[in-house]
Design goal:
- The structure is a single chain.
- The chain is α+β, with helices and mostly antiparallel strands and 324 residues long.
- Helix content is 12%, strand content 19%.
- 45% of the residues are buried.
- The N terminus and C terminus are likely disordered.
């Protein structure tokens, strides 16, 4: 038993750490806003730093607001305009690429009022949805582009009124969603001031709170059919706000609810390298990025190969590591 425990420990530690992540960088119209990493020196940033790369579990968890550990306001505030293109880069806890591939990407805005968002309490935020991305025409999740280092692209509404906004960009990883409470939430908040002279704004009925907008039993959060090809997917939460150009109240599993069933954002510009949208699911499973490595994984890999372990024992060890 001691040998098995010594094998499980490094695999469990390395795999669980690599299987989580955070937003590491935001690029707005070509301007790069770098983020910080957990447990390291924190530099000024527009991204509110989470206290852990672990997922938020449970739709009523207070950390659903802006990420694990209810992060405090960041030091900086970025600048954007209506129609600005945001590119969110996700990474793992060890500086590698995002490891998951199954589940939706959604983006919300909340007004900080007359104060800049570096002074705003996000627990008081009222959010409205501007973008949601699910799968392309082949049934491949848009999220599956992230392990290759691709950013998620979201375009601000062309008619968005000027003001101070928190941007809540979120991944829901669904590899465990076949069980109630198994979905993993990764919300990330950043602080921006939007210029211009537009007047677009949500209605009161389109505003939600986090926690409060989701339930663990919602379709799209608890989804026993998530790996069944051809099954439909329903985005959780509210529909995209009506003022967002070309949006609709549909909540099907297409890449977005933009101007058509194509890989476009709610404001009608391209979102990712994935082409068209569909309501079917891929049969893929969560897997770690091949580009991510650590000494623990190397040690673990060499540990499970000795011939003195039985074939059954090696199989049990491999299956345990894959289930983490």
């Amino acid at each position: 038993m001691k040998l098995v425990s010594s094998i499980f420990f490094p695999i469990a530690v390395a795999t669980s750490a690599l299987a989580h992540g955070l937003v590491t960088q935001i690029t707005v119209d070509g301007k790069v806003y770098p983020g910080n990493t957990v447990n390291s020196k924190e530099n000024p940033s527009v991204i509110r730093l989470v206290s852990s790369t672990s997922p938020v579990k449970g739709a009523t968890n207070p950390d659903m607001n802006c990420g694990f550990g209810a992060p405090q306001p960041a030091a900086d505030v970025g600048n954007a305009m209506p129609g600005s293109k945001f590119e969110f880069t996700w990474g793992s806890g060890f500086g590698g690429n995002w490891p998951h591939n199954t589940g939706p990407l959604m983006t919300y805005l909340a007004s900080c009022g007359s104060t800049t968002c570096d002074k705003f309490d996000s627990t008081k935020a009222k959010w409205f949805k501007i973008d949601q991305q699910g799968q392309d025409a082949s049934g491949k999740w848009i999220q599956a582009e992230l392990p290759a280092g691709q950013p998620v692209t979201v375009t601000l509404p062309n008619t968005l009124a000027p003001g101070n906004y928190l941007i809540r960009h979120e991944i829901i990883a669904l590899q465990g969603a076949v069980s109630m409470g198994g979905a993993e939430f990764y919300p990330s908040c950043s602080q921006f001031t939007v210029g211009g002279s537009q007047t677009g704004a949500p209605t009161d009925k389109e505003l939600v709170s986090f926690p409060g907008a989701y339930s663990d039993s919602d379709p799209g959060i608890f989804d026993p059919d998530v790996f069944n090809p051809g099954s439909s997917y329903t985005f959780p939460g509210p529909p995209i706000a009506a003022f967002v150009s070309g949006s609709s109240s549909s909540s099907n599993g297409s890449a977005t609810t933009g101007t058509s069933a194509s890989g476009t954002s709610a404001s009608g510009t391209a979102t990712t390298s994935a082409p068209t949208a569909t309501s079917t699911k891929s049969s893929g499973t969560c897997k770690l990025s091949r580009k991510v490595s650590s000494s623990n994984l190397t040690v673990a890999a060499s540990t499970v190969r000795p011939r003195h372990l039985s074939r059954i024992m090696r199989g049990l060890i491999a299956n345990h590591a894959l289930s983490l």
